[in-house]
Specification:
The protein is mainly α. Helix content is 81%, strand content 0%. Helix 4 runs antiparallel to helix 7 and helix 10 runs parallel beside helix 14.
Length: 411
């Protein structure tokens, strides 16, 4: 399957793969500035609009589990094309929604289609590039995914202010149609269909059960997933808090979202430097400690009205830097035990993290924000939850030693 590509071909392929990976981040973040207007237009509380975000996260969690076997059985492009078609039609359905119930359903379908882009892109990278190029291409995809939350709300803020929220979904549909065309023209086919792959539920289920039975995977999936849900608590409430409570405009909210997204992106890049001197386990221990402490400061400061909007944003920036350290290292240690079943492990890891994020957004959306308190409480609970999972594992008999974890990671 490996083929040598010219620099121009390599650039085009990675560009299209990166575009596929932006579909879901843009879908999550681009419509956030429109929450207040959507609630007014659809005559519903903003908490119900927040449930459309939960529906999208649940859709991603479910969709990832199905696309893995489909991509193996039918090849990379057919499931991808089907997913993109579902996404485009669902995006149009979101734009035409006259009720919040219809919007929530369409967002779920949008996620089922949209997650095909990310799953397919990662599979195609593994298929077409040699080992030394795979890591490089994956790094570029991760960077694109990380930068997307900086751009999406800012763009969404401009669109919502200039037109209205319906146009956000029309633009998403149009952009995805262009990406679909680019995949047809630019992307190679990747791995051939494997008719021997079984789609029987029992066989698929058995592979996932085998993954979940590995203690190291389970511990780091839960620690990383629970702590990693903190940004979802922030995302679900941020538009309500900063636009309705603190009076930010759509443009101001877009720039604020970009600033806080930079906290996660910058720490992700810092992680590469830290790994030269510290183990993944050491970095996780440190980041969960200071994230939990910062979460406590946020809850205390908001509860006793000690924080103005600037000090709130500053503490949130510090809090979110831990996400860029937790995520890569918990993922690495969760995946380390698998030389086989890596695909199932990857799908399960992504699915469970989105499922936890969906649960958190659903809970946070129950509390209409008259202050930042529900948001920071949700963030702090997630940080403490990840911290507790890690500490409980270290106290239980049979805990995998730090040395063995690091040896597994190094291998």
């Amino acid at each position: 399957m490996e083929k040598k590509y010219s620099k121009t071909e390599y650039f085009k392929i990675v560009l299209v793969l990166g575009a596929l990976c932006t579909i879901s981040p843009f879908s999550i973040d681009m419509y956030l500035p429109g929450f207040p207007e959507m609630a007014e237009t659809l005559n519903t509380p903003i908490s119900n609009i927040q449930l459309s975000l939960t529906a999208y996260l649940v859709g991603i969690a479910i969709g990832q589990l199905f696309y893995g076997p489909l991509l193996d059985k039918y090849g990379r492009k057919k499931p991808l094309y089907a997913g993109l078609a579902i996404y485009i039609l669902a995006s149009i359905g979101c734009a035409l929604s006259q009720s919040v119930e219809n919007l929530i359903f369409m967002r779920f379908l949008q996620a089922i289609g949209g997650c095909a882009g990310m799953v397919s892109a990662q599979a195609i990278v593994r298929d077409i590039f040699p080992v030394e190029k795979t890591a490089q291409a994956m790094s570029l995809l991760v960077l694109v995914i990380a930068v997307s939350p900086m751009i999406a709300p800012t763009l969404g803020g401009f669109v919502t202010a200039a037109y209205d929220w319906h146009w956000v979904f029309i633009i998403l549909a149009a952009l995805t149609a262009l990406i679909w065309l680019a995949t047809v023209v630019v992307l190679p086919a990747g791995a051939l269909p494997d008719r021997e792959v079984s789609l029987k539920p029992k066989k698929v289920w058995d592979s996932y059960i085998k993954v979940l039975s590995n203690r190291q995977f389970l511990v780091y999936m839960l620690a990383g997933g629970i702590a990693g849900a903190a940004p979802f608590a922030y995302i679900a409430s941020s538009a309500d808090v900063f636009m309705n409570v603190y009076g930010f405009s759509e443009h101001q909210f877009g720039w604020l979202f970009a600033l806080l997204a930079f906290a996660m992106i910058g720490s992700t890049q810092l992680n590469h430097i830290l790994l030269k001197k510290f183990s993944s386990q050491q970095i996780i221990n440190f980041s969960l400690h200071y994230q939990s402490f910062t979460g406590l400061l946020l809850v205390t400061g908001v509860f006793f009205n000690l924080l103005n909007v600037y000090s709130l944003i500053t503490l949130m920036f510090v809090f979110l830097t831990a996400h860029g350290l937790n995520g890569p290292n918990t993922t690495a240690l969760a995946m380390a035990p698998f030389s086989k079943n890596a695909g199932s492990a990857s799908a399960m890891l992504g699915s469970m993290r989105m499922a936890i994020g969906g649960i958190v957004t659903a809970i946070v959306s129950l509390f209409h924000a008259t202050s930042a308190f529900p948001m920071v409480v949700g963030m702090a609970i997630c940080a403490f939850g990840g911290f507790i999972v890690l500490k409980m594992d270290q106290r239980l008999p049979g805990t995998i030693s730090r040395q063995r974890r690091n040896e597994a990671f190094a291998s």
